[in-house]
TrEMBL record:
<comment type="function">
    <text>Adenine glycosylase active on G-A mispairs. MutY also corrects error-prone DNA synthesis past GO lesions which are due to the oxidatively damaged form of guanine: 7,8-dihydro-8-oxoguanine (8-oxo-dGTP).</text>
</comment>
<dbReference type="InterPro" id="IPR004036">
    <property type="entry name" value="Endonuclease-III-like_CS2"/>
</dbReference>
<dbReference type="Pfam" id="PF14815">
    <property type="entry name" value="NUDIX_4"/>
</dbReference>
<dbReference type="InterPro" id="IPR023170">
    <property type="entry name" value="HhH_base_excis_C"/>
</dbReference>
<dbReference type="InterPro" id="IPR015797">
    <property type="entry name" value="NUDIX_hydrolase-like_dom_sf"/>
</dbReference>
<keyword id="KW-0408">Iron</keyword>
<dbReference type="GO" id="GO:0034039">
    <property type="term" value="F:8-oxo-7,8-dihydroguanine DNA N-glycosylase activity"/>
</dbReference>
<feature type="domain" description="HhH-GPD">
    <location>
        <begin position="48"/>
        <end position="197"/>
    </location>
</feature>
<dbReference type="GO" id="GO:0046872">
    <property type="term" value="F:metal ion binding"/>
</dbReference>
<dbReference type="GO" id="GO:0032357">
    <property type="term" value="F:oxidized purine DNA binding"/>
</dbReference>
<dbReference type="Pfam" id="PF00633">
    <property type="entry name" value="HHH"/>
</dbReference>
<protein>
    <recommendedName>
        <fullName>Adenine DNA glycosylase</fullName>
        <ecNumber>3.2.2.31</ecNumber>
    </recommendedName>
</protein>
<dbReference type="InterPro" id="IPR004035">
    <property type="entry name" value="Endouclease-III_FeS-bd_BS"/>
</dbReference>
<dbReference type="GO" id="GO:0035485">
    <property type="term" value="F:adenine/guanine mispair binding"/>
</dbReference>
<dbReference type="InterPro" id="IPR005760">
    <property type="entry name" value="A/G_AdeGlyc_MutY"/>
</dbReference>
<dbReference type="InterPro" id="IPR000445">
    <property type="entry name" value="HhH_motif"/>
</dbReference>
<dbReference type="GO" id="GO:0000701">
    <property type="term" value="F:purine-specific mismatch base pair DNA N-glycosylase activity"/>
</dbReference>
Length: 373
């Protein structure tokens, strides 16, 4: 049993805001001091930042905004264009929900985002955190936006012994109590910035922290033990085979995955089922077409949220004019970067073909869950 800090004074939001005024991060989606935040940009960035780092999001955000500068432009875009702009960011259900949400904002609200948490929560893909973040940052509502950074800060300041995710309601109410009447949007961003830059998972810079005095975990020297977490269950390793077919006219066989489910609506070279007991030596039986299949050395590994995947890659060359099987298509190798290929499938293609022409190298990185924003 840990001893709580002897003199636990309440952290003062104004101390944090004073620190924020001096040290706030400049981010492409963030309004400058004194400017009003654009709800579309706030919402877009918050969806992109879920499970993804700021560094990974920046180029996607800027590209997305250029292609879809308004919620109306996004709502009116074809689904394929949205998925293509998202390709490489991972967690693809977010892109489908993003599109559905943009349509709902246009259809139900005339293109204006609602300003309150309850109304925002009714929109597709907007959960408790995003509703609170948009309400606070874009509309200055007194809402408590609690993401991974905020959980870390609050669990340390108040030394919350209960492990996550059970402690979520407690952390939320502790945060809500601190949200000031004035500047709730700045407060939300200030706690996020504190968690991202000072109160980091490892070696927090407590000496620079505006809440050093009231922080209970710091007083005991046990900062890095918080937040406590319940052990996560990860699924067993699944195996499968991926089939890369190169036609003599320099085109590659692709298909689109069904709209629902993992990587729904994304493009891929055909693959087998992914099963814990998949037998790679029998992979050729799952091949999409008859050809001289060559099993490539090594495997492609990718970690999804709930399970790791290991793919054996089979490669074949076929003659010009070979027809694509039902529901598949030939894509010129030079246009592969325009396809909505998820990170796992880019790895497969690189394994078989080498670099993808026109692909942005940094763009298909899948950061660890809970990475600092
Ligand atoms: S004092 Fe240290 S542990 Fe506590 S909130 Fe500040 S940075 Fe985090």
């Amino acid at each position: 049993m840990l001893t709580p800090a002897p003199s636990a004074t309440k952290p003062d939001p104004q101390d944090l805001l004073a620190w924020y005024d001096r040290h706030r991060r400049e981010l492409p989606w963030r309004a400058r001091a004194g400017e009003t935040a654009d709800p579309y940009r706030v919402w877009l960035s918050e969806i992109m930042l879920q499970q993804t780092t700021v560094a990974a999001v920046k180029p996607f955000y800027l590209n997305f905004l250029e292609r879809f500068p308004t919620v109306e432009a996004l709502a009116g875009a074809p689904a394929e264009a949205v998925m293509q702009a998202w390709a490489g960011l991972g967690y693809y259900s977010r892109a489908r929900n993003l599109h559905a949400c943009a349509k709902a904002v246009v259809d139900r609200h005339g293109g204006e985002f609602p300003s309150t948490e309850p109304e925002l929560l009714k929109l597709p893909g907007i959960g408790a955190y995003t509703a609170a973040a948009v309400a606070a940052i874009a509309f200055n509502e007194r809402a408590a936006a609690v993401d991974g950074n905020v959980e870390r800060v609050m669990s340390r300041v108040f030394m919350v012994e209960e492990p996550l995710p059970k402690s979520k309601p407690l952390i939320r109410s502790l945060t809500a109590e601190l949200v000031p009447e004035d500047r709730p949007g700045d407060f939300a961003q200030a706690v996020m910035d504190l968690g991202a830059t000072i109160c980091t998972p490892k070696r927090p810079a407590c000496a620079l922290c505006p809440w050093m005095r009231p922080c209970q975990a710091r007083a005991t020297g046990l900062q890095e033990m918080f937040p406590k977490k319940q052990k996560k269950e990860t699924g067993p390793l699944r195996r499968g085979a991926a089939f890369v077919v190169l036609r003599a006219d320099d085109t590659i066989l692709l298909r689109t995955r069904p709209p629902a489910g993992l990587l729904g609506g994304m493009a891929e070279p055909p693959t087998s089922d992914w099963l814990p007991d998949y037998e790679p030596s029998r992979a050729v039986l799952d091949a999409p077409i008859e050809a001289r299949w060559q099993r490539l050395p090594g495997t492609v590994r990718h970690v999804f949220t709930h399970f790791p995947l290991e793919l054996t890659v089979l490669f074949a060359k076929v003659a010009k004019g070979t027809p694509a099987p039902h529901d598949m298509r030939w894509t010129p190798r030079l246009h592969l970067h325009e396809e909505a290929l998820p990170g796992a499938m880019k790895k497969v293609l690189v394994h078989a073909l080498g670099d993808l022409p026109g692909a942005k190298k940094a763009s298909d990185k899948q950061p660890a869950k809970g990475a600092a924003k």
